[in-house]
């Protein structure tokens, strides 16, 4: 079973952890009830959201590899029934999770260049610190039972035919224990579209010899016998693939008879769509909403002061648009319009556009509704015709006449309007950010079955928004950068601006990690380690970046790395006026990130959410591991810690650590 929608704000990780446990429970319940043929889920999608135009970015957790890796591990452990922490029982799986798409896959169809033929040129440095870390975490921390190799090639080699990637990296280096599947028909294209293999039998041999076990599609079935007869594969190759596949099926208990008599046999249909699970869906939707603008206290609205409300926009009254892509049947779904009609009796509705394409409009009707109401809320953004599998965007602006509709309505309204954006990828709404007639902007992503309720609760102050953006929102000018340029790091001499908050040097509409609240919060460190940290007994390795000394993390060893770990405690206060759930983000920054060493400008190293009453103070502890958090990737893919200063930041507060031999 394919799995899809996952994009969420940095605020939603704790709720996401509970949600994936529910996914495993409900999957097993459906299977036990005879309504599913298997228990293998081809999810999560943990490719880094590198380019804002990518149609499947909506399926991912975002652009940061640390966050994506943590999400991957939590997703896998929850679905597979391991629990979110502690020991793993690898012999029994509640369901099987599969981390995809391995690796450097983030292009569907851009100006005629499709994922089926695309050859991603990726440096060892970018593989080490951006593209591969989520998969490493998926295996080492999550203990995933499945990996899917991708359609694309990486540096000329199809990923499903790459022995170094599948067998050496995943199985040998990371200790992967499970099956490796191709994406659907990814074996066929190795010969038929990419021309990498000279014959169909060569394609079958390439993938089996590389370590792939399962072909989604019929290519291996069709050409495997002739590949065996021609001596291009052996029975041992087939046996290995069968062993890896059937071992997972056995771990799922698929050969143990009546599933109701097995370990997970007590999970029945009464555990699907329970009230607890529906409440969790609402909490996830609430946590995922990001308040991007709130000028003059435009939000929250007050039920007692809103006598009439105009709801405008094609995304206001279509329940399927809340779900994004790859979704199962929801338990209950209400559209935003239906929910708001329960808040304000006198609520009018005009779609304004025929769809996200907005090439047919009813702007005069929308203007009339806006001018007649006390308050106006617009539901705009994108839909699955604009972004999805096989569809990338060419522009970052709102499609068609959406901007014209929004500005016309804002000009006609009695008060500054509220703009709610439903979309997976970021959009350039600079016009709305700077327009005083647009008082507030909410990004809701594709919030799922309870999204309509969650949005209304935020609008009317029944929930205090605390979400943070998991991706950078770029201006339209970013579209001059080819999607096919996989480099993460900026190259100023050529005008290449870099990608994601870690390396991008250019203007933004909204930054990664940005998000407002109805409350004010403050943060400061209350414990700080000594300024100097000696790495005793290690010889510094000279690098080419200005003669800077650095220490090879692998050479340091686990004992030294463990000794260097330290706690960082953050004091967080909610200054009111509302209670709220609040994310605390801790970053590392380097003082000289532009010196040619390839360091990120800053890097997320930890994040936690906590609920604080108005005026309440709490302490949050983060474990900081210099070997993991302070290291950078060299051009040849080694991890090193540079000698000198490193700064750990939370909001405006920071402390310095300096490493010396």
Keywords:
661 residues, alpha/beta, TIM Barrel, Rossmann fold, Immunoglobulin-like, 18 helices, 27 strands, 20% strand
Please give the order of strands in the largest beta sheet.
Answer: 10-15-14-13-11-12
CATH topology of the largest domain: TIM Barrel
Number of strands: 27
Any idea what the radius of gyration is?
A: 25 Å
Task: Give the low-pLDDT segments.
Answer: none
**For the residues shown, what is the average pLDDT?**
94
Could you tell me how far the N terminus lies from the C terminus, measured between alpha carbons in angstroms?
Answer: 52 Å
* Helix segment tally: 18
CATH superfamily of the largest domain: Glycoside hydrolase, family 3, N-terminal domain
- What share of the residues does DSSP label as strand, in percent? 15-25%
Question: What quaternary form is this?
Answer: single chain
Measured as a percent range, the helix fraction is: 25-40%
Written description of the protein model:
This protein folds into three domains: 12-269, Alpha-Beta Barrel (TIM Barrel), CATH 3.20.20; 273-480, Glycoside hydrolase family 3 C-terminal domain (Rossmann fold, 3-Layer(aba) Sandwich); 520-659, Sandwich (Immunoglobulin-like), CATH 2.60.40. The longest helix has 20 residues, at 13-32. Helix 11 packs across helix 15 (451-459). It is of the alpha/beta class. The chain is 28% helix and 20% strand. The mean pLDDT is 94. The chain contains 18 helices and 27 strands. The strands form seven sheets. It has a six-stranded mixed beta sheet with strand order 10-15-14-13-11-12, sandwiched between helices. A five-stranded mixed beta sheet has the order 17-27-26-21-22.
